[in-house]
Write a structure and sequence with these properties.
CATH class of the largest domain: Alpha Beta
Largest sheet: 6 strands, mixed
CATH architecture of the largest domain: 3-Layer(aba) Sandwich
Strand order of the largest sheet: 1-2-6-3-7-17
Distance between the termini: 25 Å
CATH topology of the largest domain: Aminopeptidase
Helix content: 25-40%
Number of strands: 18
Order of helices and strands: HHEEEEEHEHEEEEHEEEHEEHEHEEH
Oligomer: single chain
């Protein structure tokens, strides 16, 4: 099979919707995108395996070459939902305008697989002698990164190979990212007892108890800032944000239920178990005072922080290839899971500022530099 050209592959990816969402009205799965990627990678000589992790949720693994170690190029094939009324372009068509590719997933990040395919195709066209390949090149295309990170979590537990190094092609403006914070999001629900406001003894006011909860969380926030610090981050401490609260229904009723949603972004090295213990300690006096009134429910599975040692040879060599210093960021990726297998960097075309935005785009200025970085990386770590 002859591989379609770069733009046609890009168009094929963007026009195949693969939205993942916790809302069933939006959630679609990624099986159709994986089917296309499997055909294209097989056409370039890769051995391809697909695995349905959950119904409609599929991971793809592809391998070119044999041996141990090698380089893994990874990314996710799902996108976030979109607000059609805020788009000036069709989110499910690749539109060239203003020296940009517009479309849902152009930057975050289905388009990255078009770069990988074209980089290998161009290596073939330029006469690369694959008989001299010493280590395998692996591709991983995951499902559900935008929601549960199901694909990366599953792959890490069941990984059929162990590469030497991994590059995740999230949009970093081609800056190597060596670390990012994690993300924890929980709902705290206080269940009181409703009653007529004229007699407080008739009920238990959930808002008043939530006031105590919020005070305890603010004290925890101060503790995190004081006790945990990482100079490699622009915001060097964990952050805790109270993002949503709802309770009660009328001014003349004692509030019977109140719920607070908060998020916490831990630094690398701060374990999820440690954070859970800190939270339990913060709320313990309130739970003792109001037994059975508090419940905590995760809004999604927690994501730990991630860091690849800035002194590692992989970091230095990729800095040389990219001609720029590595950085840290505050957003999350699949890196904490793939880092369990091997040293991992996040590095890809496009800007994170375009992710999850109307009129998402990738500037055409990224095309040639990205192909160059991919080809040089493959040569360095597979030949």
């Amino acid at each position: 099979m002859r591989l379609p050209d770069f733009v046609d592959v890009y168009q094929g990816l963007i026009s195949t919707s693969s939205i993942s969402s916790t809302d069933p009205k939006w959630d679609q799965g990624n099986a159709e995108v994986i089917t296309k990627l499997a055909e294209w990678f097989e056409g370039l000589g890769f051995d391809v395996t697909t695995e349905e992790v959950e119904p409609g949720k599929v991971n793809l693994m592809a391998q070119l070459g044999t041996g141990t170690g090698g380089l893994l190029l990874a990314g996710h094939t799902d996108t976030v939902p979109f607000d059609e009324g805020r788009w000036n372009y069709d989110p499910h068509q690749l539109t060239l305008d203003n020296n940009r590719f517009y479309g849902l997933g152009t930057a975050d990040m289905k388009g990255y697989f078009a770069f990988i395919l074209d980089a290998v195709y161009k290596m073939n066209a330029s006469g690369t002698d694959w008989s001299k390949q010493q280590k395998p090149l692996y591709i991983l295309a995951t499902c559900d990164e935008e929601t549960t990170m199901l694909g990366a979590r599953h792959f890490t537990k069941e990984a059929p190979f162990k590469p030497d190094y991994c590059i995740i092609g999230e949009p970093t403006s081609l800056v190597p990212i060596r670390g990012h914070k994690g993300h924890i999001a929980n709902a705290i629900r206080v269940t009181g007892k409703s009653g007529h406001s004229s007699d407080p003894s008739l009920g238990v006011n959930a808002i008043e108890i939530m006031h105590e909860v919020m005070f305890a969380l603010m004290k925890l926030k101060e503790r995190l800032v004081k006790e945990y610090h990482h100079p490699g981050f622009a915001i060097p401490s964990p952050t805790l944000n109270l993002g949503h609260i709802h309770g009660g229904d009328s001014a003349n009723r004692i509030c019977g239920c109140c719920e607070l949603h908060y998020d916490l972004r831990p630094l690398p090295g701060l374990s999820l178990d440690s954070l859970d213990q800190l939270l339990q300690e913060a709320l313990e006096p309130i739970e003792a005072k109001w037994p059975g009134k508090l419940s905590i429910t995760p809004l999604h599975e927690p994501i730990p922080g991630y860091e690849c040692d800035h002194k590692h040879e992989f970091v230095h060599s990729m800095q040389d290839i990219c001609q720029t210093q590595s950085q840290t960021v505050n957003y999350c990726t699949e890196a904490p899971f793939l880092q369990e297998l091997c040293p991992t960097l996040v590095l890809g075309p496009g800007s994170i500022e375009q992710a999850h935005q109307p009129d998402e785009f990738l500037s055409l200025d990224f095309i040639d530099p990205t192909l160059d970085i991919l080809q040089r990386s493959i040569h360095k770590y597979c030949f």
